[in-house]
Amino acid sequence: MTPSANVTSVLNDYVGTIVARSIVSGASSASGIDPDAMNPAQIPMFLRALDAGINAFVQEPLKQQECATRLRSILEAQGAHPDHATHSHRLVVDINEEYDIVTARNHTKTLCDDVGFTASEQVKIATVVSELARNIVLYVGRGRIELEIVNTPRRGIEIRSIDQGNGIPNVDEVLSGKYRSKTGMGVGLLGTKRLMDEFAIDSGPARGTRLTVRKYV
Amino acid sequence: MTDTHIPIIKLYDTLIVTIQVELSDRVVMKLKDDIGDAIENLGPKGLIIDVSGVGIIDSYISRAIRDIGLISRLMGVEAVISGLDPNIAMTLTEMGMDLEGVNTYLHLEAAYEAINGRNALARKTGHEGADEASAVEDAGEAWWRR
Question: Which 109-128 residues of chain A touch chain B by CB within 8 A?
């Protein structure tokens, strides 16, 4: 996503889409800075221009502050790594062998940096990705992990684990914590659920397994 | 992908394994074999698994580490873990996992002293005055155990 799209989507959590867009374009014309082509030195000036719009349209002072802080952190994150603007915010990692687990984890780290997760949250998210990718390697053989930055209802990361295997036979039992396989699968799946903010699973013999989890900043 | 080998270091009566690479199935199996051999051949007093170089521990890796600990315990050698990153400790707790049966110490020095007693290293090397190591001994108590 471009910086202007990022800014608009954060603003969209506080104001409507049209207002969000006009705050961005207003700030751009007031400061003479194009957010998609600015250099890191211009970020503070552009943020000040955005503040004027935020203060005009966001009512509560606390929300104003929160919004401004989030905008600063995402713009600074992008400014620090200029190439991030061109990074895709959706990544697909094919999982066919053990080493792909490491690849998936490394991609996760890059995305987590972009989103602005703390170090301890990053470890949790990387652990979940490792867990899901390892399940694919150990129990199915091949599948894929999809990683995506989400902005609604809050900024965060969505991780999808998709395979065409035979499904998880006793998924309810596993998630209730009553079941522990010899291989430890139960612990991993239950642990994944505990580490994430949202957890959804669809699994069956004919359709394989599709697991979607989310963690918000 | 190259095949990785995890070295087992002998320090007097203690074996030290520092894990600094990705633990794949193959690496874990090889390590279990190697540790079994080393214990049989060297007859050590204890085994320390240092995980300070490990970035994340998922359920599979935690089980592998615990298994290694239990194998060496079955062979009559005390096994402990050192250097667990605080973020990993938090993650493991939240997941509801623990490294049951294997004591955990803050760092390698504390783990070594736990196996060999206070100032063990100083006595071995003849530096009687080196007392500072004992200060960390209590801090390194097995805080991980619940």
Answer: 119-120, 122-124, 126-127
Residue A214 near chain B (CB below 8 Å): no
Domain containing A161 — which CATH number?
Answer: 3.30.565.10
Residues B51, B104: contact at Cβ < 8 Å? no
ipTM above 0.85, yes or no: no
**pTM attached to this predicted model:** 0.67
User: Dihedral sign, CA of A183, A184, A190, A194?
Assistant: negative
Q: Which stretch of A194-203, B25-34, B103-112 has the lowest confidence by average pLDDT?
A: B25-34
Measured between beta carbons, the chain A residues lying within 8 angstroms of B24 are: 98-99
Half-sphere exposure of A19 (CA within 13 A, CB side): 14
- Count of domains observed in chain A: 2
The CA distance from B138 to the nearest CA of chain A, in Å, is: 26
Which residue among A68, A85, A102 closes a domain?
A85
* Residues A62 and A94 reside in one and the same domain: no
User: What is the span of the domain harbouring residue A47?
Assistant: 3-85
